[in-house]
Write a structure and sequence with these properties.
SWT21/TCAB1_mRNA_Telomere; 6-stranded mixed beta sheet; WD repeat-containing protein 79; RNA binding; WD40_repeat_dom_sf; WD40_rpt; mainly beta
């Protein structure tokens, strides 16, 4: 039989073409390894450090520093000199009242402005007024003028309105309504409902955003409710400010100030003449001190968070408290505020100048860095004949916005017995319509002593 053919061996596998480079470390004399100093000296001799130095020495474009969380973007002023007259005044949109406001059967034509605020970016300005409307205006920085964007009826008496710290959004609280969040075009973005222990809707008396803008604090009667902006609707947390065993703030919570440095820390003022310090990490008040004055209406922190300014109702002072020793008064500012209105005040970023309204219709400017135990305003500017209730400093320009107005009751005239109550009411209504047509709204309300100047003004500083 024929021998079988030999089977050839398989060809060898193809050699891999990839060459793995092995890192070769430099060696010294005798093949020993170099230490760190010797390696750096060798690299310096080869010019490696020179190339790195060139890259480091190349000039870089200066980047604007990012403001820290909670930092107030306010204009810093070395000196303040408010102009003698405003550069812009808006009164027309507040004098047009074709229909009665709220549940009032007769419109008396006194649509006074309750508050004015610049937005955090300075592009918009918001006002609240007696006719239960929130008005949003566009602000022209070059001309220092405003134009009405939208007028929103809120249905009930407006308790509070506050701008979002980062967006052009504004939150409002009104009677028998939830808290609504609106954008600059007047469109509703979110709604928050404060539900009480009876599963009923409660109206917030005061609202403030957290420093990181993730939460919304709302003050009620004996309760603080916290809302999450990522979860609109019912409150996510509730703090009871008073209990029978431990006491606390029992009355209506009227104002809230958020700490500018520490997120989750805030101060709360109430009509019970006390200030409480709270935080998100505690279910009750952490520090409580009495103030010994009337009901609190305004609270504001300094930029460093070491001072707390407070104003009370029907009182002629603004008190500065030292939070390093809570309850201790640093100084008192003389500010006429002899009505039950809430007179707003505002600070610049350097915490040197404080701007405030007054019941005398004057804009008051205080230098709080050089004051003693009690101080008078460094500048007074007459702005209106009625009360000046609102002030707001523009965040990036030396511009100040103020608003004025107050509730003035007209003097009733005596009528004959034959005319009766119905005849008196009809006569008043006819006179009111005639005054509205002629634009006469001042003398009939206050016997000619004070004219109604309902509106807001823009001032240069």
């Amino acid at each position: 039989a024929a021998a079988a053919a030999p089977v050839a061996d398989p060809p060898p596998a193809a050699a891999s073409t990839a060459v793995v480079e092995k890192k070769v470390e430099p060696l010294g004399e005798g093949g020993r390894k170099l230490n760190r100093q010797e390696r750096r000296a060798m690299m310096r001799a080869q010019g490696i450090f020179e190339e790195k130095a060139k890259k480091v020495d190349e000039p870089k474009e200066k980047e604007e520093p990012t403001p820290a969380v909670g930092e107030r973007r306010r204009v810093r002023m070395d000196t303040v000199n408010i102009s003698d007259s405003p550069v812009f005044t808006e009164t027309r949109v507040f004098s047009d009242l074709p229909t009665p406001a709220g549940y009032q059967p007769v419109v008396y034509g006194n649509n006074y402005v309750r508050s004015v605020q610049f937005s955090s970016g300075g592009r918009n300005l918001a006002t609240t007024s007696q006719d239960r409307h929130l008005r949003l205006f566009k602000f022209d920085e070059e001309k220092c003028e405003t134009s009405l964007t939208v007028s929103l009826p809120l249905g009930g008496l407006i308790y509070d309105a506050v701008w979002h710290p980062r967006e052009e959004w504004i939150a409002t609280s009104s009677r028998d309504h939830p808290i609504h969040l609106w954008n600059e075009e007047g469109e509703r973005v979110l709604s928050f409902r404060g539900i009480n222990h009876l599963d009923e809707l409660s109206s917030a008396n005061t609202i403030r955003f957290a420093v990181d803008s993730s939460r919304l604090y709302a003050g009620y009667h004996k309760y603080l409710r916290i809302f999450d902006l990522n979860r609109p609707g019912r409150q996510t947390r509730e703090i009871k400010t008073w209990s029978r065993d431990h006491g606390g703030q029992r009355s209506l919570l009227s104002c809230i100030a958020v700490h500018p440095v520490y997120s989750g820390v805030f101060a709360v003022g109430c009509y019970g003449r006390s200030i409480g310090l709270y935080s998100d990490n505690c279910k009750s008040v952490e520090c409580l001190f009495e103030i010994g004055h009337s009901a609190l209406t305004e609270l504001e922190y300094s930029t460093d968070g070491l001072r707390l300014y407070g104003a009370t109702r029907n009182d002629s002072s603004i008190v500065c408290y030292d939070l390093r020793n809570p309850g201790q008064t640093l100084f008192t500012l003389d500010r006429p505020g002899l009505t039950n209105q809430s007179f707003a005040f505002d600070l610049d970023s350097s915490d040197r100048y404080l701007f405030s309204g007054s019941s005398t219709g004057e804009v008051l400017v205080y230098d709080v860095k050089t004051c003693g135990n009690q101080t008078q305003p460094m500048q007074r500017v007459k702005a209106a004949e009625s009360s000046l209730v609102g002030v707001s400093v523009h965040p990036s320009l030396p511009v100040l916005a103020t608003c004025c107005g107050e509730r003035i009751y007209r003097m009733m005239e005596l009528s004959d017995d034959e005319e009766g109550e119905e005849g008196e009411e009809n006569r008043m209504k006819r006179e009111e319509e005639e005054m509205m047509e002629k634009g006469e709204t001042g003398e009939k309300y206050s016997e000619g002593k004070r004219q109604l100047q309902n509106g807001f003004q823009i001032w240069r500083m």
